[in-house]
Amino acid sequence: MRAMDSDTDMTASIAERVRTAAAAGQSLRIRGGGSKDFYGEALRGDLLDMRAFAGVLSYEPSELVVTARAGTPLAELQALLASQGQCLPFEPPHFGQHATVGGMVASGLNGPARGSAGAVRDFMLGVTLVNGKGEVLTFGGQVMKNVAGYDVSRLMAGSLGTLALLLEVSLKVLPVAPAESTLLFEMPEAQALRQLNRWGGLPLPINASCWQAGRLSVRLRGAKAAVAAARVTLGGEAADSTADALWTGLREQTLPFFQLQGGESLWRVSLPDTAAALDLGATLVEWGGAQRWLKRPAGDAPAIRQAAAQASGHATLFRSADKSVPVFTPLNAPLARIHHALKQQFDPAGVFNPGRLLADW
């Protein structure tokens, strides 16, 4: 009972701080482990550190559901799941040893398996949050069901803490695949994109892919028989001995490609997976062609965003010391109205993370 009382007291204290800030016209900068501080626009407001609000509240391996507080270390949650042979299928990046569950949801970032397994938002079942009025609200639950209207749980994914302060998150988890194998192929980018799209139309257990500097890596995951059959169908060179380093380095951006030199910025370009190769310099391609990374100066934003738009996509300035251009592709008028309306509903006083997602709120 004392633990429950302590949780209630901490929740009440957080809600009161939000109400005080709203009444005083102050802003709060919500922060977990700080591993995603580089991502987004500005970091403003009085720091509200959520790491003390940690712990797994419930875990039902047989139901494939876990509920954890926002400040729970992501590594701690994943270790608990691994002990039961389960995982977060979207492979969230940590980008540092202090990554938290709340930061995972707020950033909405996904790892190499996103193209096949889905995104963090697809595994959101429910949230408990504090809105900008200091009200504690719960949405969703521990089943895949939501009431009509906005799916608030999923809406939190990728909002960068600009709509609400996350307290608790319920997530769907999945069993670890019984078999895995990585294959290598030597081919140019255009051929790799064509091949990935051809394979995408076949019943193959392709879980992740990465093309860079003339080499295509493909990870298979699934039943043992399916993976064994796919290895025969695809051919290529087996690379299981070095696979962990490759996929972990891709997820955490520790591969040599992601090391930026003076003046370079890292751009993430989201495209239809059928889009042709972009003629914009050194590229790393994953998610079957749907996500492409470029290293170009921030000042090249017009050319990069024009090329992305022509391919029916958009470009994000993912890592950069130069924030002289918008980090995210500017929204068209209808989308901007929706974003501002949501902000008004959740955080009318503009308390949370001002300028983190959009410069004007």
Provide structural commentary.
This protein is of the alpha+beta class and 361 residues long. It has ten helices and 17 strands. Strand 11 and strand 12 form a beta hairpin.
Write out key terms for the chains shown:
361 residues; alpha+beta; Uridine Diphospho-n-acetylenolpyruvylglucosamine Reductase, domain 3; Alpha-Beta Plaits; 3 domains; eight-stranded antiparallel β-sheet; five-stranded antiparallel β-sheet; 29% helix; globular
Report the span from N to C terminus: 40 Å
Helix/strand class = alpha+beta
Helix content, binned percent: 25-40%
For the sheet with most strands, the description reads:
8 strands, antiparallel
CATH class assignment of the largest domain:
Alpha Beta
CATH architecture tag of the largest domain: 2-Layer Sandwich
Brief summary of the model shown:
With 361 residues, the protein is an alpha+beta fold.
